[in-house]
Amino acid sequence: MAAQLKDRYGREVPERIAAMLSAGPPGFDRAAFFAALDGYDGMELMDRGRLMGRALAAALPADYPRALEVLLASLGPPLKGGTGNGMAPFLYLPHTVFVATHGLDHFEPSMAALHALTQRFTAEFAIRPFLERHPERTLERLHAWCADESQHVRRLVSEGTRPRLPWAPRLRAFQEDPAPVLALLEKLADDPEEYVRRSVANNLNDIGKDHPELLAEVAADWLARRPGRRRVVAHGLRTALKRGEPGALRVLGLEGADGVEVADAAPLPDRVAVGGSVRVAVTLANRGAVRRRVMADLAVYFVKADGSARPKVFKMRVLELEPGGTGQAAATVSLREMTTRRLYPGRHRLEVLLNGRAVPLGSFELVPGDAG
Q: Within 10 Å of residue 236's Cβ, how many Cβ atoms?
């Protein structure tokens, strides 16, 4: 079984937070902090962060602006890079929880706090209550932050406004009308940092789940005006492409795959044990009379606990096939259990998707790890 994230967020985290706050200005009650951590060991990662946020409220001064002074005085230096920091930034998750929970009636000091905190741990979760309580003021601030010198602050703009941000409640107003979000993304789509541009693409991907036609329109407009945005657009269209949505395929020149066939496929194993992998390789042939640009993806129908099956799509490659031409595409599917995926025994069928058109490839039986 894969190690759980919460195991890397143990009792050493509140100990370190308490040490940092105890070394700063007066106002932190160490005993009250630890007294409020009852049940910590039995919680998952995010719940542990929320509990520590409540514990901070019990241990800091009741006056919110004063509590912020004590809290912010304990911060370490900002992160240097955009990625590759592992679990270290999660040290400041409770700090963002404290601001999001207790700072809604103190807009300016809270914005200053989130500006500082997001340079140490993303404030993408904490900004969302402010978008709901103070939508106009918060959007105005986010527009200003689009030009901030810190890439972490700029990324907060795009990541914090995602309508379907993982681990967070959805922003229903932006699901209904994403126009305010698109206005922000327009300012960030050409950001010099890949870290920010990838967040822009993630937001586009969220928007497309509720507004597929609008996403296709925005993608086409962006590419027409700024061809350099192609990578951002392609990543933003990834879910729409996996679903084979015509508008998304058309934007990237992947419309139709008539005449393209699976000419050959490597044989699949009949049985695979949990913990192993499956290599899938196909040869595609263009039997038509015109050149075809084909996106080949692999859909694996994973069996669920109730016996039903749901597809997960894996990228293979995009091929340019001349009339009569052939090309190869392949993917390796890991069958190891992960914290985000539980595997169940049963027959798993596979399809190759050619510009969204499904072609059956066969199936394999997934068996327990000691039965392979």
A: 28
